[in-house]
Structures are given as structure tokens and as C-alpha cells.
Design goal:
The complex is a heterodimer of chains A (110) and B (114). With 110 residues, chain A is mostly beta strands. Chain A is built from no helices and 9 strands. In chain B, strands 2, 4, 5, 6, 9, 10 and 11 form a 7-stranded mixed sheet that branches. A 4-stranded antiparallel sheet of chain B has the order 1-3-8-7, with no helix packed on it. Classes of the chains: A mainly beta (110), B mainly beta (114).
């Protein structure tokens, strides 16, 4: 699986958009970008994934650059409950395993 | 659909003992993966089972083993426990098929080795 690079930590004001970047410059053509988050001591929660196109669901939006070497997860209106560690993962389909990095600790402040 | 369930949620063992953890996947999911999470090493992949066969294996000693049953439920076993095995053990299930497989994680089992 391709390696990802994320900032160690970020802050965001409550109600504002949180934009979390991820670099995956060695991504292969058949690898998907996945985002998870983990609130302290709970299991990681799936947020969103994409291959080439931008994606949006009820939780977030995923913007993938045209060259697919980086992506941004957008939480449109961050709340205090969005404080968590966010993981960006790159993996092939149906691989059955994910390689997690250190993620980004997002702190949403009132 | 019910999510991934793991039992027990908390466990305390002593060095040298063995432990068995259980994972029930989301209905219809035939792939179950196991991960270990520690403060020092982060989330690390242990192994993955699909249709009762181990498909992938991480870099862990043979003391860590697993199996999957015909109903896709999975167990992992750790023998001869060491202090360093204290961790949050997570399992994730996914549906293997067309497109990509999204892994959904359970709440984890917190293992403490004394």
C-alpha cells in the first residue's frame, strides 16, 4: 500500500470548515483513498473514500487532486464531537488490510 | 444492520496466560481483519480471514493466531502473553465483491497483561 503523509495536528473553530490534507504521492492507479476517524479508545469510524472523483456524503467531502497525489477531507461545519484522530489510508480494492499511519489529531475549539 | 461486535470488551490477564478474542462481522461480510493498537506502535495489521482462509498476515510472532468459522465469525488467540501485548485489539469486517471493500471496525477489546 502507498504511504501517506498527514500533519500531526490541526485546530479548527467550531462551526467552521475543517480541511484535513493528505499526501499520497506514490499512489497507484488501482488504489483508493480512504478516510477514517478515531475518537479516543473507540474503533475507527469510516468516513468516506474515493478513487479519482470528488466524493460527498452526509459526513464529509473528499477532494482528490487530478494527479491523485494528494487529497483533502472537508468537514463542512465542524462541531466539538468532530475532535478525533483522522487517518488517511491508501489501499487496493478487496485487499483485506489497511496500513495506518499516525493520522492527524483534529481539535475543534469553541 | 448491526455493526461489528467484539467480545469481551475488556480483559485482564497475567503474563504467560493465553487469551481468545471474538469478532462477529456485519451480516453478509465474509472478510474479517484484526489489528493491534498500542500508544507506541499505532494501529498495526495482524491478519485477515476470508471464507475461513487466512489471506493476509502482518508481521507478528506465531503467538498470535486466528481462525474464521463458516458463519464468518472470527477469533484471535494470543498464547504466552507478554506485557507488551497489552493493547486495544480491533477487528474490521468488509464485503468482498465488485468495487472496493470498505472496512467497518468494531469497538475493540482492551487487553491488559499484568
Amino acid at each position: 500500500d502507498a504511504k501517506t503523509t498527514q500533519p500531526t495536528s490541526m485546530d479548527c473553530a467550531e462551526g467552521r470548515a475543517a480541511n484535513l490534507p493528505c499526501n499520497h504521492s506514490t499512489i497507484s492507479g488501482n488504489e483508493y483513498v480512504y478516510w477514517y476517524r478515531q475518537i479516543h479508545s473507540q474503533g475507527p469510524q469510516y468516513i468516506i473514500h474515493g478513487l479519482k472523483n470528488n466524493e460527498t456524503n452526509e459526513m464529509a467531502s473528499l477532494i482528490i487532486t487530478e494527479d491523485r497525489k494528494s487529497s483533502t477531507l472537508i468537514l463542512p461545519h465542524a462541531t466539538l464531537r468532530d475532535t478525533a484522530v483522522y487517518y488517511c489510508i491508501v489501499r487496493v480494492a478487496n485487499a483485506g488490510k489497511s496500513t495506518f499511519g499516525d493520522g492527524t489529531t483534529l481539535t475543534v475549539k469553541p | 444492520k448491526a455493526g461489528v461486535t467484539q467480545t469481551p470488551r475488556y480483559l485482564i490477564k497475567t503474563r504467560g496466560q493465553q487469551v481468545t478474542l471474538s469478532c462477529s462481522p456485519i451480516s453478509g461480510h465474509r472478510s474479517v481483519s484484526w489489528y493491534q493498537q498500542t500508544p507506541g506502535q499505532g494501529l498495526q495489521f495482524l491478519f485477515e480471514y476470508f471464507s475461513e482462509t487466512q489471506r493476509n498476515k502482518g508481521n507478528f510472532p506465531g503467538r498470535f493466531s486466528g481462525r474464521q468459522f463458516s458463519n464468518s465469525r472470527s477469533e484471535m488467540n494470543v498464547s504466552t502473553l507478554e506485557l507488551g501485548d497489552s493493547a486495544l485489539y480491533l477487528c474490521a469486517s468488509s464485503f468482498i465483491g465488485q468495487g472496493t471493500d470498505t472496512q467497518y471496525f468494531g469497538p475493540g477489546t482492551r487487553l491488559t497483561v499484568l
